[in-house]
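Box 3.1 — From sequence to structure: Acetoin utilization deacetylase AcuC
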Amino acid sequence: MTADITVYWDDRMLDHEPPRGAFKFPDTPIVATPEVHPDRRERVENVRAMIDHAFGDVTETVSPARASRTALERVHDPDYLDWLEAFCADGGGRIEDTTTGMNEHTYDAARVSAGAAIAAAGHALDAPSSESGPESPLPYALCRPSGHHAQPDRADGFCFLNNAALAAEAALADDGPADVAADRVAIVDWDVHHGNGTQEAFVDREDVLFVSAHNDHGSWHPEYHPQEGSIDEVGTGDGEGYTVNVPLPPGTGNRGYEAVFDRIVEPVVAEFDPDLLLVSAGQDAGPADMNGRNIATRSGFREMGARARRLADGTADGALALIQEGGYQPSHLSFATLGVFEGVLDRTVELEGYGTDDPFTFLDEPTDLVDEWIDEAVARHREYWPVE
Ligand SMILES: [Zn+2]
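Predicted structure (token representation):
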């Protein structure tokens, strides 16, 4: 078999299970039956089913090694890692009043998840998926738990270890997974939430570009999540300008995301000229996602996938790796992630009963409002980048 996709996956990532409650929040007597947490295992089981059905004959699955302590300490504080390991060994539980919690398997699952992202980055550098043709499949880290909210010193937003940040640091390291280390890494984060942990990891760095398009949800916890994801968080010191936030209004859909790529993501990444493009691919910008407020559909994700492919080919000699982030409506996550692969692989899949459509397409986009917000982001980032 000649593979087109390498999925970095291990069943140990299913063992992580956050506590039940009132949706993602702590339990309350007014909810009779505590609800399964939105980071439920069905999310990734559905993605696996989609890949098996749509691309099973061109997909290979590789079980990644757990990320080593050395790899983890490239991003995370040793004290935090010690705390996380001990908290899980003790049985886990919810972190105070936050929406983030774990069980006794979470630390191991998170290390496997981080290992998947690191392996995907090494794969992308050693064997770029477009330059070498079908002999070099696209690396896709099907990570659970997700990573982009995990900050160097704390868990946050269902995330414990920052998979994308760990992958970027591994790619830059001389003793990392690739034969030749990268000098510059770009991370494009299209998850509907701001990748605050990734931003925090590289806020003062000029060798890692972070571009995030997200709902304008702001800080959701004064202590655990101080970052706002605003256009004014542009990085500090040597990193000034290398954090590029694009907050979007509720209802942003396919056309808005396409405009974000046209006007900001593509010119900024092209100017940065990375050796590796990592995509924090959270497909929770869909119309039914209970944690998002946007309305991107399968065709919109198809376009984003195609844009990521072309961007990696044009700027990073094809070195592209996808790292799974959020996506919480379990069925829509399959349709949306199918769209991403259709775009990256430049093929469409006819699904019986659905064709090439997305059954969740039922809302209109407030295009004038979306354009106003993108105009504001362009005006802010013009100080650093050739955007217009
Ligand atoms: Zn998200």
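Summary of the box: The pocket of zinc ion is lined by residues 191-193, 282, 284, 325-326 (CB under 6 Å).
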